[in-house]
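Researcher: Structure for this, please.
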Amino acid sequence: MKVKHITFHRRRAAIHEAGHAISHAAHGIRVKSVSIQQTGPHWEGWTATEWQPGITPDSLPETDLALACGHLSGHVSEQIHAAPLPPASNIEEIAHAMACQEAMAAKGQDVDLQGYAWALLEKNRAALLRLADNLMLSRKLSGSRLRFLLREVSR
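Model: Predicted structure, token format:
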């Protein structure tokens, strides 16, 4: 029973990080690496990208959308592919996405961020699942292998 439980959480972490990577790649942000690792009974992950500017009064709408969607896409990916989610999961990333959405609204950019992220991840479902499957096997992806897995991602 424990192995099944750990594998499920490992898969959830892979799905989550794949969601972040897909969102970044779809918005033209270079993904440097994606990784997952076990810490005790839990799995956690990281998606490293090139430097990203923050949302400012002068930032472009495309930049704002890319940042906000990037924050939320791990959570949305779990909603699509690893539901049901534990209570209060991904709360920090959701808070970041909400702050981005509020900043966008203050600039007159009204976006259904959840719906936008969901549609983007569904459109790139095959690439997301391939990336998650590869993370399950190797736990870290970077370089040419990662670029190959992200090659078909689109907005």
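Researcher: Any notable elements?
Model: Residues 58 and 142 are 32 Å apart (CA to CA). The two ends are 40 Å apart (CA to CA).
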